[in-house]
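Inverse folding, one chain.
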């Protein structure tokens, strides 16, 4: 038996038949899922941009803080004393530009007299707080970004759940209406 060299082709395109079981709510469910997924992707992208912006702002603030300051190597002259929660102060001495200075400044709690401590001072040689470190800027940016993304996910998930609930309610109403028409025929209670 010979095989045909060309597969038979229909003379006209086959019309697409609509699935009688496919309802409008099925399409709505699909599109709600698509919109939800796109909204989550957009929220993730915007959150990353927010994090990068917050980190850049933190670094700019640190640069502004450090602009009028310089670091000096000081020597602890006294044992540190507590000055509040996680704050220890000691008298420090240092020499800068040929002048000797003696001031109290925050130090690590394990500092002993004679230990060298690096501190930031302004043009008047007054001790100042350290500029914001890069790790703190990154941590703050990540924390705020994560909080914003969590809120966006919570909000979007709530909207998704509500829309699914409304679609399901419409589907049940549709099923009830159709069953009210078909049930008398099937049960012969016309």
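Residues assigned per position:
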């Amino acid at each position: 038996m010979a095989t045909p060299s060309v597969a038979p082709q229909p003379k006209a395109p086959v019309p697409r038949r609509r699935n009688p079981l496919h309802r409008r709510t099925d399409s709505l469910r699909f599109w709600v899922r698509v919109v939800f997924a796109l909204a989550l992707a957009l929220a993730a992208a915007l959150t990353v941009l927010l994090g990068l912006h917050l980190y850049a702002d933190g670094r700019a603030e640190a640069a502004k803080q450090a602009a009028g300051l310089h670091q000096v190597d000081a020597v602890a002259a006294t044992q540190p004393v507590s000055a509040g929660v996680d704050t220890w102060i000691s008298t420090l001495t240092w020499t800068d530009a040929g002048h000797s200075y003696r001031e109290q400044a925050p130090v690590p709690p394990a500092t002993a007299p004679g230990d060298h401590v690096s501190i930031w001072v302004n043009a008047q040689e007054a001790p100042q707080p350290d500029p914001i470190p890069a790790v703190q800027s990154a941590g703050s940016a990540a924390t705020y970004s994560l909080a914003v993304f969590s809120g966006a996910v919570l909000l979007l998930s709530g909207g998704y759940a509500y829309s699914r609930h409304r679609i399901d309610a419409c589907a049940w109403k549709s099923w009830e209406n159709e069953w009210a028409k078909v049930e008398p025929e099937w049960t012969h209670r016309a």
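The mean pLDDT is 88. The CA atoms of residues 87 and 106 lie 7 Å apart.
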